[in-house]
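ok trying again, last paste got cut off:
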Amino acid sequence: MSIHKFIQKIQKTNYFPKSSKWIFLLLLVIISIIYNYQEVLFKPTQSLHQWRQCDSLSITWNYYQDQNSFLEPSVHYLGDDGTGKTASDFPLIYYFVALLWKIFGPYEFIYRIVVLLLFFIGLFALFKIFENTLKDSILAIICPLLLFTSPTLVYFANNFLMDMPAFSFALIGLYYFFKFWATSKNKHLYLFILFNLIGGLLKISSLMSFMAIMGIFVLEYFNVKLVTQRKIFQQPYKQILPLMTVFIAQIIWYVYASSYNSNYNSGIFLIGYLPIWDFNMLEIKETLHAIKNHIQWDYFRTITQIIFLIMISTILFFHKKMNKILLSLTIFLFIGIILFATLFFQALKDHDYYTINLFIIIPIIILSFLHLLKQHYQHIYSSLILKILLVTLLIHNIDFARRRLDGRYSNDGWANKEYVEHLQHFTTI
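nice, full thing came through this time. structure:
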């Protein structure tokens, strides 16, 4: 048997789309059990950022109990005018959970399950992107699961903040962009637009990937050749208007939210930015030190982040061999992260959830790197060693995330100290 036929045989055994989805979903459940989600789902708000968790529940409870109209969100804190009316995130999830509460009762675990299911759908969409692009089910199973090993994502995956649903919608939107890239069918483009529109309304930072793809649209408009056979956006004048609806929707909502807050209660939620230039040098140094701690403990294992840096360095070094679409996505996302970090630098000291939507670059880096190997370094890509290394990396990261999550919910840890010693007593009044 020739080497070429042998490699083809290995590739065939690696590609099993009929059963791979069930294996992926089963692994999601198993990893969730390892993280003790079966208990976490039924915990009340606690640990890091409990205050912000309660804000989300407060809006939801006011929809459930006070029958607020959709465009009139409010919190328990009555504010200056005694109404408690205030707005920040587009209240789609809050309102939907309140409807579920009216059917099943006001249980916090329902809220957690909704957020978690959205994230699982987002991870499944990511799995399909990898499988459809690489035609390798094993790598398609392993690589998206790496996202489910970041302590930050694991903690907020079944929590109450809108950053995770927004991130999940961005992942789903990315799936439909890849479908549009493969088929040129506008129905996939419209679904890509829809999911990004919703995600952006929930949290505008989730538009990171949408903006990167708009960058590709602009490059193609000015005849920069990214794909040999054809352009991705073959009808730019017809497609620009639907794409612009994403921006229009954001403007309409934030104009409304700003007006709503000015009429009732301003200053409860941030509608704006927290730029680096408003900090002095001492504050910048303190924030950079905090970011260093987050990198060490909250994003991924240090070795994993080093591997990601090696991947992106390889992508840039071999940029002439790279798929130009994947290369453009990687570069535009990298630029977007720098801009975001500049505009929201002040929040990066204490608020790890601000970084959730920045994680969109991780699967793009991994996919770009593996696509480079598959196209030009098949002997590495097809090697059993690569898969063993990735599985080992996945297992170590799962263990790291498990220990970090245990620390956040532990009765003895610093993260949950305030709740255990003081706030927990209010739940038994």
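cool. The chain has a mean pLDDT of 93. The two ends are 75 Å apart (CA to CA).
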